[in-house]
Amino acid sequence: MKTIDAKRKIRKVSEKTLLYVVVLMVMIPLIAPVYWMFYTSIVPMKDLTRKPPIWLSPNIKFDSYLYVLHPYYGNLYKPMLDTAIVAISTVGICALLGTFAAYAFAHLEFGWSKVLFLTTIFSQMIPPIAVVIPMYMLMNTLNLIDTHVALIIANSSYTLPFITYVMFGFFAGIPWELEDAALVDGCTKFQALIRVIMPVIAPGLVAGCVVAFMATWSDFLFGLSLAGKDVKMLSIAIYEFRGKFVLNWDHICAGAIVAQIVPFAVAFALQKYLVKGLTAGAIKG
After folding, report:
1. Residue 91's Cα: distance from chain center in Å?
2. For the purposes of burial, counting CB atoms within 10 Å of the CB of 133, is it exposed (0-12), middle (13-18) or buried (19 or more)?
3. Alpha carbon of 124 to those of 89, 95, 127, 242: distances in Å?
4. pTM summary value
């Protein structure tokens, strides 16, 4: 009996050890770029260019962060505000429209609904670089160049189909008897959607919004082509840290680390709903 218990304990320890090894092997490639980016932001360039490289330099400094956060030199505050306005507005608009569109595609039958849904999803296959010039011409005609509205419209053109597709999977997996019961109790379709259906699919909506927020927060292409003077995306501000004759990697990496604080905080604060939404979507969709 003791031998069997000992074998079970050895097996459990071996399984846990193997699990930790696998997790470590997966995490190292994910953490290594972040570590090297942070390391680049706090050590002098002479230590970065040494051969062989120094993985832990004793010459640590935080001057790069003081530079990128300085109100006169780096001044990332205004780009962060512009990026937050664009990201929050884009996600809010697309969450509202995408939820109603997904509900209609999943539950309401109308002419050409499948064709319209496939067309909406197909738009995700078009690379953003292919629509930059038409988008610029449209915004220029509407006198929206270098405004928040132009960036919100441009990012929504890709965020809206994504949220619609994500929410469609959740709506399709809901037993519609819930809505029927709400209708019997006297609710309208809109009330049933808001009071009964939405609480069930809320984790999926949060997961889709978090992913869409991160994508919009890190937008570079539309920020470069549609704005850059009065309105500047954070990625463009970091890109401008490059020098005329040399790349200031310490400033660029420091700006990149600062830029990731907000997405990391959002994902950390909503991780409970994010995990629920992603796992439920994997099962239902």
Report:
1. 10
2. exposed
3. 20, 16, 8, 32
4. 0.83
**Residue for token digits 């420091």?**
254
Place of tokens 């009071």: 195
> What would the two tokens of residue 235 be?
């990625």
Angle between helices 271-284 and 198-217 (to 10 degrees): 110
**CB–CB of 158/124 below 8 Å?**
yes
Q: How confident is the model at residue 13 (pLDDT cuts 50, 70, 90)?
A: confident
Report the candidate in 234, 213, 200 with the shortest Cα–Cα distance to residue 93: 213
- Alpha-helix residue ranges (DSSP H) falling in the chain: 2-42, 45-48, 63-68, 77-107, 113-122, 132-141, 148-172, 177-184, 189-192, 198-217, 221-226, 234-239, 249-259, 261-269, 271-284
| Tens of pLDDT, residues 38-73 | 888 888 877 777 777 777 777 888 888 888 888 777
| Amino acid letter, residue 177 | E
- Give me the domains of the chain, ranges plus CATH numbers: 2-61 (no CATH), 73-284 (1.10.3720.10)
Tens of pLDDT, residue by residue over 224-278, are 999 878 899 999 999 888 877 777 888 889 999 999 999 889 888 887 777 666 6
Query: Are the beta carbons of 102 and 171 closer than 8 angstroms?
Result: yes
Give dist(CA 91, CA 279) in Å, integer: 21
